[in-house]
Amino acid sequence: MAIHGEVWLKWCYRTFGRRIMDLKDRDADASRRIRMAAVLLFARQGYAATGIRDLAREVNMTNAGIYHHVSSKEALLADLMRVAQRGLIDATERMLRDVQSPTDRLALLISSLTASHATAPMTTQVMDTELRSLTPGSAALDEIIALRDAYEDHWKHAIADGVSTGAFRIADQKLTRLALMSMCTGTSEWYRPDGDSTLEQVCAEFVAIGLAAVRAPVQVVAALDLSLLPDFPWEPPHARNDPRPVEARR
């Protein structure tokens, strides 16, 4: 009986285990397609103008099928923003880990934020503009604000350290930070890979502008390694050509 029992268990595993894995794979694929469609629609027409019916139509599913994978449209938005913000923070912390100079840190922050918005324009647009769509006072809103603030702290500290060491001369640190970040995030609106300037050229020019804004001494700054950019897993692949190698975007 023990032998028969073992054979039966192996048969069950081969038969049902594979089916369970197939179901999990299909669920994962459906979840990915829903989130990619949500990024596309939220960026193109805005969160408020996008309904569950629009999402269902985009991925060829029923409304009930959508709700099998997401509890609500707002929960979906919060998830997209949470993953994107954490990805940006993690990538930034890896890039800055061994960088001590305030000038080098600011240069990395400028080039990485610029490149992130240029290569993932739809994800970053949702991340930057749809915070207003989360319910005031909700736990999700508080979490996303905390993540955003954690990222901006890297900018605050780099600028403050530059001022305290005499490397930067700034009248208003907050206004300078906001101006530089706005310059970087604006690339999601206008940058095109087939435009007049390459992404490397845009990043280099923005770093030069940023260091001039804080009145830092002119110096040669190493080019950003594009493979270090954050992974935004649900950026629609054909929204805009990404200059990074394919393996760096997986």
UniProtKB/TrEMBL annotation:
Portion annotated as DNA-binding: 51-70
Any Pfam family the entry gives: TetR_C_24
UniProt-listed SUPFAM superfamilies: Homeodomain-like, Tetracyclin repressor-like, C-terminal domain
Keywords assigned: DNA-binding
Domain HTH tetR-type, chain residue ranges per copy: 28-88
Keyword DNA-binding: yes
Name of this protein: TetR/AcrR family transcriptional regulator
Organism of this sequence: Nonomuraea turkmeniaca
